[in-house]
Amino acid sequence: MITSERKPLDEILSYLKGENKIFIVACDGCSTGSQVSDPVHTQALVEELQQNGKTVTGVARVEMVCNGGLTALMLAQQLAAVNEADSIGVLSCGVGIQSVAQWVAKPVHPLTNSLYLGGFHGLWRSQERCVECGNCMLDYTGGICPYTACSKSLLYGTCGGPQNGKCEVDVDVPCGWMQIYERLAALGRTERLKDMPPLRNFRNMLPAGARRRTSMWALELADVEAAGAQQ
Amino acid sequence: MSFKEAAESGKFVISCEVAPPKGINMEHAMEEAELLRGRVDGINVTDLQAACMRVSSLATCALLKQRGLEPILQMVCRDRNRLALQSELLSAYVLGIRNVLCLTGDHVVLGDHPDAKPVFDLDSVSLLGAAKRLMEGKDLAGNDLEGVPDDLFLGAIVTPGADPVEPQIYKLHVKVQAGARFIQTQAVYDVDAFTRFMERIAEVKVPILCGIVLLKSAGMARYMNNNVAGVFVPDALIKRMAAAGQADKEAKAAGKKADNQAKTSIEIAAEIIRGVKPLCRGVHLMPLGWGHHVPAVLEAAGL
After folding, report:
1. Domain spans of chain A?
2. CB A168 within 8 A of CB A161
3. DSSP state of B218
4. Which of B126, B186, B204 to mutate to test the interface with A (most CBs of A within 10 A)?
5. Closest Cβ–Cβ partner in B82, B118, B168 for A158
6. How far apart are alpha carbons A126 and A174 in whole angstroms?
7. Phi, psi of B157 (to 5 degrees)
8. Are B80 and B54 a contacting pair, CB within 8 Å?
9. Would you call B128 an interface residue with chain A, using a CB distance cutoff of 8 Å?
10. Which contiguous run of DSSP H or E holds residue B95?
11. Which pLDDT tens digit goes with each residue over B83-137?
């Protein structure tokens, strides 16, 4: 399971500058387990957005957002509400956010930070999509993760290596930053490449504080205590 | 005159790179550097270029500095994390080195230790940012420095021939924003294409030094076209190199000495330099082992 936390409201609102209508995709999988995207917490976010003058055009609950086909189906069922929205906000792990971003030609905003793997992985077969960096950058990069899509995990744009859209590491590997550039160009958001997000904080990947706040940690401790009591 | 003074003086600036050896024999690198004395404004020293292990750029720059030459320290982000990179910037400063070219670096899989761990904790942009912060008296974590390297002269690179070029241009803007005060480019062979590139980046005010790589043969030109990102050698130049190579072959078969390839290579480089001279603020020569031809190139270009 990918454990996630919701991003602070201020950060979410900063993504929504100039946008009034938002469609929400909420995952019934891992991030519900993290008490981030379950119906109660999703509704709480919807209300916070409304209190800040935003209109939520609809909410799609998807069993596992990382399942791209299922996500596409659920979005199609609410096509009018999706089309009406300026952008899509996703309550899921980083894999799910990218799963949504591949289907819609609108800005897709991460509403969570993926913290670490806690057991079963929400799978997107064929490649790694999320390194649980703890500070999701998918808003800046158009819904494609620079840490997994770029061989060098570059955060500030392309290196000098790509040729014909392929990575210098392997001619069969697409250049992640060319994909990001094309996605942003299609969305008319290439100016975002002049933003300079903060340096990656590798301490976010240490489980300590975040893990202790979760029910997973409590269950693990209970298991250990129970085993100790038996001995 | 320091490289910084030259770059800021408005004169046409010349830099040239030398490569440290794999092993401890510094003789060849020092000979190449000596050939540049009085002829160039700065000498770049490559940092484990092409991801191949060798003597460091820092040590080589320090040796150049001892000889009274003006080194430009190249630093890539492939092999060190942010602690080591900042430490090396301070170390370079205490050794008298002031010019630093900040690069991301080729991936390890392209080099001679493909199993190594690629670091890339920082990249070209964030390394520039780190250096700028050191110049302001703080490290990346916000700690105060005891003694501030406030007159580092920071540079970066751009690939004018990248396709598409827009992502390169966005990154160029970010590099200048992060602290780059001079720019050296990837190899340029097509003056018209370079003209168009310079028009597109007209609002970038820092000095741009156009990259010049000496062609050694038609084969090398074709290899670069197929394998080096953002480098394009026009057919006309490849044909000239091929004809020169053929002439050398025939002369050799007739038992005569001939050096048509080198002569043609020097001619071509000089033509490109004359072509780009009105467009940019200088040139950056990358002789790739042909350092002994650099004085002839500069002479032929009228520099």
Report:
1. 1-135, 141-196
2. yes
3. H
4. B126
5. B168
6. 14
7. -120, 165
8. no
9. no
10. none
11. 999 999 999 999 999 999 999 999 999 999 999 999 999 999 999 999 999 999 9
Fold of B3-216+276-300: TIM Barrel (3.20.20)
Asked if the model's pLDDT at residue B274 lies above 70, the reply is yes
What are the extents of the domains in chain B? Answer: 3-216+276-300
State the CB neighbour count (10 A cutoff) for residue B98. Answer: 20
Pairing of strands B42-45, B208-213: unpaired
Please report, for residues A41, A42, A55, A181, the alpha-carbon distance to residue A59 in angstroms, rounded to integers and kept in the order given.
12, 9, 11, 29
* A159–B contact, CB cutoff 8 A: yes
Closest CA to A152 of B154, B57, B103, B53: B103
Q: What's the burial of B150, exposed, middle or buried (CB within 10 Å: 0-12/13-18/19+)?
A: exposed
Q: What is the pLDDT of residue A3?
A: 83
Residues 6+ apart with CB under 8 A from B218: B238, B239, B241, B242, B245
| Interchain CB contact of A204 with B (< 8 Å) | no
Measured CA to CA, the distance from residue B263 to residue B214 in angstroms comes to 11
Contact check, Cβ <8 Å, A169/B126: no
Model pTM score: 0.85
Q: How many CB pairs under 8 A join A and B?
A: 86
Task: Using alpha carbons, select from B94, B100, B106, B123 the residue that is nearest to residue B44.
Answer: B100
- Please determine, for the modelled complex, whether the ipTM score is greater than 0.95: no
Interface test with B, best of A150, A153, A158, A182 (most B CBs within 10 A): A158
Closest alpha carbon to B133 in B120, B122, B143, B123: B143
Contact present, A169 and B110 (Cβ < 8 Å): yes
Q: What's the topology of domain A1-135?
A: Rossmann fold (3.40.50)
The confidence score (pLDDT) of residue A167 equals 95
For A2, A220, B3, B65, B285, the CA distances from B160, given in Å and listed in that order, are: 42, 55, 23, 31, 16
In DSSP notation, B156-170 reads: EEE-TT-SS-HHHHH
**Quick one: closest CA in B to A181, which residue?**
B167
Residue B197 — pLDDT band, cuts 50, 70, 90?
A: very high
**Encoded amino acid at A57, one letter:** T
Name the residue with tokens 């003056």: B191
